[in-house]
Amino acid sequence: MDIDIYDFDKTIVPFDSGSLFCGYCLLHYPYLFLLLPLALPLLLIAILLMLSHIISFTSFKKICFMFVPFIPLEKAVKGFWDKHEGEVHKWFYNRKRYSVVISASPDFLLDEIRKRLGFDKLICTRHNRKTGAIIGENCRNEEKVKRLYQEFDKDSIRVIDVYSDSICHDRPIFSLGQSCYHIVNGERVPFKFNEVYKD
Q1: What is the CA angle 110-83-187, rounded to 5?
Q2: Residues 24-34 as b or e (16 or more Cβ within 10 Å = b)
Q3: 24-47 pLDDT, tens digit each
């Protein structure tokens, strides 16, 4: 089966959906500000520990969505995409092949937009919807390829096009495609893998 792979944040949409959702929730559920005196020191400590390589990015990200138990999650997610669905880049609607979106963003946030956009497969970071905590590994870098081959037998698919905004972080998925597209300001810029990644 021929497939195309898409990153999500700053690729299909022009923003980081997880960060924007956090801001949306603070705006629409202002009582969350009452948690800030507890949450901010914890976040600052976690950032320092992550930058010092004492904890992983996955461990850090587990803290970022600790507000989830305090909001009506399904209502918040629907409201968020009601506001931002119109920002999806128009070229994404003209898909020609089986479309696989692979993202580090939370499943509880992207499941809704998958239903609305109708793409074929979503692979993303799994979260506990009651606590917000990550289940397993954060779906980024090499983990994207690992998760792809958990969903599909390696010999059963052929990756045609790969789309991402991140040359730095998405080398693993770019390496799978016959054609690579760097998303710059919402536009698809084709490049040759061997010319960008020379080592």
Answers
A1: 70
A2: bbbeeeeebee
A3: 999 999 998 887 777 777 778 878
